[in-house]
């Protein structure tokens, strides 16, 4: 499992020396479902915190995702054109 995530390779490319890729994948999913990965992370974090190796400062990113240039010019239903809205205001 570590090799797969370290390399970013697909499951099917896990070297045969580690076992059958499908068995490794099934074990990974089983551990995800039964909470093994969460327990492992909590234990590693606890040990690192005791050793003073974790800085618990949190940074929140407020990045804005801009629309693609072709998406910005799509027509939208806004309830009419600006000209028709203007004539309604003048008539009132």
Automatic annotation (TrEMBL):
Chain intervals with Polar residues compositional bias: 75-92
Domain Insertion element IS402-like stretches: 2-40
Record protein name field: Insertion element IS402-like domain-containing protein
Organism: Gordonia alkaliphila
InterPro entries for the chain: IS402-like_dom (IPR025161), Transposase_6_like (IPR052909)
Location of the region described as Disordered in the Swiss-Prot/TrEMBL record: 72-92
